[in-house]
């Protein structure tokens, strides 16, 4: 399950967008211009990358870790914390 900063809160510079687009031009759809920068849809970018390497099931929690205080967010709180992710292969 993907939990990440949401597409309305993850602001990046043009250099980040350009780096994604150089390798995968189809990622342009996941960047929205915003105040001389871009808002990036990180969950969709992650799902696209995973699909490209053969991961067929990705579950998105549809939770923005920036806007939901139940989750750690350095961008929101400006201090570090810990979160964990679990990934497994099912045969």
Verbal overview:
This protein is α+β, with helices and mostly antiparallel strands. The chain has one domain. It is built from three helices and five strands; from the N terminus they run E-E-H-E-E-H-E-H. Strands 2-4-3 form a three-stranded antiparallel beta sheet. The longest helix has 11 residues. The protein is flat. The two termini are 18 Å apart. The relative contact order is 0.22. The model has no long low-confidence stretch (mean pLDDT 89).
The secondary structure category is: alpha+beta
Largest sheet: 3 strands, antiparallel
Order of H and E elements: EEHEEHEH
How many domains would you count in the coordinates? Answer: 1
Q: Low-confidence parts lasting 5 or more residues at pLDDT below 50?
A: none
Instruction: Please state how the strands of the largest beta sheet are arranged side by side.
Output: 2-4-3
Average pLDDT across residues? 89
Number of discrete helical segments:
3
Helix content: 25-40%
Shape: flat
N/C terminus separation: 18 Å
- How large is the radius of gyration? 14 Å
């Amino acid at each position: 399950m993907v939990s990440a900063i949401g597409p309305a809160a993850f602001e990046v510079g043009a250099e980040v967008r350009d780096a994604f687009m150089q390798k995968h031009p189809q990622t342009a759809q996941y960047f929205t211009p915003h105040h001389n920068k871009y808002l990036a849809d990180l969950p969709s970018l992650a799902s696209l990358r995973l699909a490209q390497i053969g991961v067929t099931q990705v579950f998105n929690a549809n939770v923005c870790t920036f806007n939901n205080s139940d989750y750690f967010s350095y961008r929101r709180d400006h201090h570090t914390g810990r979160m964990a992710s679990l990934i497994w292969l099912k045969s």
